[in-house]
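writing this on my phone so excuse typos. first protein, seq and then structure
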Amino acid sequence: MLKAAIRIVAVVCLMCWSAACGHPPGQQAGQGGPESVYKGQTLNVLSWEGYQEDEWVKPFEDKYGVKVNVSYAGSVDEMFAKAASGSVHYDLIFMDGGSVTRYQKLNLLQPIDTSKLKNTAQLIPAMNKLNEKHVTFEQKAYALPFAWGSLPLAVNRDKIKEPVDSWSVLWDDKYKGKIATVDDANNQISMTALLLGFKDPYQLTDDQMEQVKQKLIEQKQLVRSYYTGFEDGKNLMASGEAWVIYTQGPTMVTDLQKAGMDVVEVVPKEGALVWIDNVTIGAKAQNPELVHLYIDYLISAEVQAQVVKKAGYGVVNQEAVKHISEKEAKDAHMDDADYFNRLVYVAFPESFEKRVKLWNEVKAN
């Protein structure tokens, strides 16, 4: 009896010792933690520049033993073309909220299971509510906000001394050959519609589209370059080839300022567009659990703060403000509640096809 009792005590002690070592049920010593279930998996991501930086991608890869393969696009049209081609099955695709409808209608996306995400509770309520109207279909969320920014003018004050307060500066003969503007059909047409005073720059009649086309053809002879990508635009300003530019975001301005240039951001009196870029899940995503894990990581306060610090984009997680400086918050316009009152949401337009056709006609004219 004594030997049997000793054996029982020994078994109980061994079980307690194993539990104290922290091995989950069904896991043996020497096996990895919960993270190891993803080891060796890959995420294919289609993204804008500045959204997949080593500062936050590498820690995720190292923690879970995964690889994040990133492809970049320089414009909305290029982004859509890559996603729609089917040559690569992207797990995650980043796009402005107004484009989500375009992708969803062609079954290029699948819904996000928000029950698998814990950080959605920290999204800025007003921004998230505004965004939801453009990314929810049949009560299913197809996207979540990741970053935001306006599309203002950037003006070199060393070269242009007079005050600038209108998009009409991009049509000013005085600056012929010193004007740069983005090679993007949707944003070009919407900006020009704002200049022409049309009430809704995303729902244009055929007559209004023709007026926009003629206005853009009129501008063409003045333009130094139609650029694609942040770096291309910044280089045009930094080299002095352009003195005024239709930007892809305020960070182009702050980057040039950091380089020592006297460049200012201008939100014209006609208003400027504001994009809220979203993360979406590709229709043929292979690793849904890992995809949701990465999304939750990207919208966390810690990663969002790094995005602001690295790229200066507007933050979508309200808790991230605790991790950034007052200057960083100011540069990202997070301290200016009235800033949004001068901005127009980049929405789904009356016809992407018509807009692309119009823009190609302008460039070919």
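second protein below, same order as before
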Amino acid sequence: MGCSQNDYLIFLFDITLDPRREAGKDLEDDVVIIYNRVPKTASTSFTNIAYDLCGKNHYHVLHINTTKNNPVMSLQDQVRFVKNVTEWREMKPAFYHGHVSFLDFTKFGVKKKPIYINVIRDPIERLVSYYYFLRFGDDYRPGLRRRKQGDKKTFDECVSAGGSDCAPEKLWLQIPFFCGHYSECWNVGSQWALEQAKYNLVNEYMLVGVTEELEDFVMMLEAALPRFFKGATELYKTGKKSHLRKTSEKKPPTKESIAKLQQSTIWKMENDFYEFALEQFQFVRAHAVREKDGELYLLAQNFFYEKIYPKN
């Protein structure tokens, strides 16, 4: 049985921390994963897997709900969050998820950092999905009224008219989410932000997948972190929730609209970051997964220990 997302509401920054630590506690029980999910990258589909597995695999799932979905925390909230994540013993092991930009825990003097994971998407496909999501919602909560509901203008019509909701500046999202809580990260078109995002992806994230190859991402997480993701691959393939959320009334953009967006420097930078992430993911996958007869399977352990001294 999974953990319902509606079981209870926890005010994340108002908890009472227990300073005591259980003697002999398993190291795996002290693990914290943070999934700072980028909007419209299949994040709800993936998070539903975590909710379905948390009861069976004995861990906690916590949604980081920020005011007005602001991905940047105040300094005082950063301190509270770091303290919660590292010291909230009753909630470990834990899987945190929310639309929050990367936060460097080392700045706050912690000894053990959380494990970061994420998923990104082709930047134009992500923007198109978000554009229609704001107008028509999705099949996850079909009755919920969205911010742009009633606006029937297609994405192509928006691009043709030079509308703000489809402007190249709206592509600038995945880079700042990985760049973090620095002011330069949110300066649209910043080359420094792009390089910092790449640095963080390689050095601070255990694994970053892509929406287009989500099953491979799930499979690799199950192999690397079975404490959390045992059973995830089968659930992804057969579960009702894993493919649940689909944006309604979405129309693919024309080649002309795509070409117009691709002329912008912002698209080139976001696409550069996406292709960098895709190459890294495919590199990691090539050393972990093989395909046979149309089925993927994980490679067995291919290292061992020898010449162990002193001999008993």
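The two ends are 46 Å apart (CA to CA). thats all i got for now
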